[in-house]
Amino acid sequence: MNTPSNPLKITEVVLRDAHQSLLATRMKTEHMLPIAEKLDSVGFFSLEMWGGATFDTCIRFLNEDPWERCRLLKKKMPNTPFQMLLRGQNCVGYRHYADDIVERFVKQSSDVGIDIFRIFDALNDLRNIEVAVKTAKKCGGTVEGCISYTVSPVHNMDLFIKMAKGLVDIGSDILCIKDMAGLLTPQVTTPLIRELKKAIKIPIHLHTHATTGLAGMNIQCAIDEGVDMVDTAISTLSMGTSHYATECVVASLQGTPRDTGLDMHLLEEIADYFKGVRKHYSQFESNFVGVDIKILESQIPGGMISNMENQLREQNALDKLEEVLKEVPRVRKDLGYPPLVTPTSQIVGSQATLNVLTGERYKIVTKETRECLLGKYGRLPGEVDPELLKKVAKDQKLNDCRPADLLEPEWDTVVEEA
Question: CA-to-CA distance for 284 and 250, rounded, in angstroms?
Fold first, then answer.
């Protein structure tokens, strides 16, 4: 038996991204607590259990206190670092918040037990994550700065390396490649990890979804190039729009220099537990549980497809789904190729849906599309369509500063209102 010389570290995402992808983020805290101690004793690098859509769903649908979820889980899992997904200046919301809100939110998250902050911006505009990064560091947290991975005529290796160096410069402890739509392919993963490893000296963490069926191959390519950590989901909540299965990665590395050292029997017990839990949420199951290679073209993340289905169902227009899926890449091109991740995925998706339903492109332009074009969300990666910009801007000025610089402090006002 080889002794692992460089064990691969695993982040388990069953308590956040797995059920966000497969069960509309509906998993309740009461279904997390009974298995918490077993999860804690596996020896994961971290447990992603908070952030993303969990905050919103706790309040809107589950009648739960998201902060309390964190505290309760921490009591049961004192040994494994807790990780959250933070949308930079958006925190866990859908707009930019003033700096005082971001600072308070990050500090409170740290106080309830978050150790690792995975921080991204939908446009890869690093100005939008600086305050969150600085605050997390000040609170003693570990920062994983993200490249939101996407494919377009303006996204290339040079740009990703420049971004990685920028993330190191602003204080990232770990670099995360956030492949939210599962767009990576083996022939991209290998050179990407290799070149990033040469360019920066901090650990690299790969986050990729199984949507296109390529996740296992991509993870293996990344492992061969020396990636430090990968995200996986316990098998009974893996695959489809979720992640590659934890047990598969653990099994594939046994007896190799990158052996994870994780206990397969314990993982099997955890998988059995979540098999039972999943049955409670069957009504929220996405129709999408297989492989969809068309995503490589439309670039639509899993969560976005189910949202679109709902929007169209409400309008009795589910038969228009194919048309909308074709319109999404066109709208994305018009907006300068933003990566499709919250909130840009919602902005592009809603605009594409309107373009199809009204029968005329940009007959109605949403407020969010308008603000996106005017720079209110940050710097767009590519050139925007000049005709559309002219239609939207009228006499308004394009914003070139950091979007949050336009916002007044909000905390005192909110406290008064509440």
Answer: 29
Confidence of residue 3 (pLDDT cuts 50, 70, 90): low
Residue 396 burial (CB < 10 Å; 0-12/13-18/19+)? exposed
CA pair distance 208, 216, nearest whole angstrom: 9
Helical H segments across 14-156, by residue range: 19-22, 33-40, 54-57, 66-76, 99-112, 130-138
Q: How many CB atoms lie within 10 A of CB 43?
A: 15
pLDDT in tens, 134-147: 999 999 999 999 99
Give the H or E element holding residue 164.
helix 157-169
Q: Which two tokens stand for residue 369?
A: 């599309």
Question: Model's pTM, two decimal places?
Answer: 0.93
User: For residues 371 and 403, is the Cβ–Cβ distance under 8 A?
Assistant: no
Contact 1, 255 (CB under 8 A): yes
Q: Which residues contact 314 (CB under 8 A, 6 or more apart)?
A: none
- DSSP code for 404: G
CA distance 338 to 312: 23
Residue (of 120, 58, 57, 60) closest to 84 by Cα position: 120
What secondary structure letter does DSSP report for 363?
A: S
Quick one: tokens of 141?
């947290």
